[in-house]
Specification:
This protein is α+β, with helices and mostly antiparallel strands and about 325 residues long. It contains four helices and 24 strands.
């Protein structure tokens, strides 16, 4: 019996009596040895600050993007955790998943976990992509991966009073999906990173579980027009008596903007109206109105607050072309 017990102990150490379990255990042991001895061993700093050893192997290196392969145990010793006694007692669940970003400690670069290789059962193995830019959303910094595409013309089509355009973008952005990034990006929204403004052309929150895909095109500032608008705004602020009834909200909007909010100051009991078929009122009450832009073309319209037996309060709004 001691011989059988010895064999049973050896089999359990190797992963158990099932061949699949022994293969998985063998691959995991090989990885853990490589984490100590391989030239491509590295340290991953997760978003929560914990550090774990991993392997980062080369995959694709192109002029506009860089892919690599990460291999990291599902559970391992956290390098910067407080020591608790035996080594085995310090093992933690790593928890890396698609959409996570981490720092490659040895060269201080940021990486997005792009696609998990599900056929690997012994440890977490995935394609990762280098992130060179970040934006701040709700006080949190998000690093993201960019891929460049050739720019094309924006072609608009009209059929039965419905207008749409073919996608026109120069960059494809991959950013971690969470409750903030899912709601943050809107079509035709303009934001800045890398010292350059960009305009959102489309958003995909459904194709992947871990990240949001945002299609962007370069946005060109019209500095002369911006200066004129700033001067007009300054002049209006100087000449306007804030105690008088007036409408608050954007005086410049863009094609197909939705739920643009306007409010009324120092007036009540009225109703909202517009004087153009290019826009519609999505909802309103006596103090606030939400406007949708229905056209792809530039123009203008008047937003009107009507009260019985009193003068209308009017705000002229400009629809700028894209």
């Amino acid at each position: 019996m001691p011989g059988l017990e010895n064999l049973s102990t050896r089999l359990n150490y190797r992963g158990g009596f099932k061949q699949q379990e022994r293969l998985i255990e063998g691959k995991l042991r090989s990885l853990k040895k490589a984490l100590l001895n391989s030239y491509q061993a590295a340290t991953a700093i997760l978003e929560d600050g914990r550090e774990f050893r991993c392997l980062i192997n080369p995959d694709k290196l192109k002029i506009d993007y860089e892919d690599k392969i990460i291999s990291i145990p599902f559970e391992d010793i956290c390098l910067n955790a407080k020591k608790v006694g035996k080594t085995s007692e310090g093992i933690q669940t790593v928890g890396m998943k698609v959409g996570d970003t981490f720092t490659w400690k040895e060269n201080d670069t940021k990486w997005l976990v792009y696609m998990q290789m599900l056929e690997e059962k012994a440890y977490f193995r995935a394609e990762i992509r280098k992130c060179d830019y970040y934006i701040d959303i709700n006080g949190k910094r998000y690093w993201f991966f960019l891929r460049r595409y050739d720019q094309s013309d924006a072609l608009w089509h009209t059929s039965k009073n419905i207008s749409w355009n073919e996608l026109n973008y120069t960059l494809e952005m991959y950013i971690t999906k969470d409750e903030f990034t899912e709601k943050h990006f809107k079509r035709f929204q303009i934001f800045e990173f890398g010292g350059q403004p960009w305009e959102v052309q489309d958003i995909d929150i459904y194709s992947t579980d871990g990240f949001v895909v945002v299609l962007l095109k370069e946005y060109y500032n019209n500095e002369i027009q911006d200066q004129i608008l700033e001067e007009q705004k300054s002049e209006e602020n100087n000449n306007t008596d804030i105690s008088l009834p007036h409408i608050n909200g954007n005086k410049i909007v863009y094609p197909y903007d939705e739920n643009i909010e306007y409010t009324i100051n120092n007036a009540e009991g009225g109703k909202w109206a517009v004087d153009s078929s290019k826009v519609e009122i999505a909802s309103q009450d006596s103090n606030k109105v939400l406007i949708n832009i229905l056209t792809s073309k530039s123009g203008s319209f008047n937003l009107i607050y009507k009260r019985e037996n009193e003068n209308d309060i009017v705000l002229n709004v400009i629809i700028e072309s894209l």
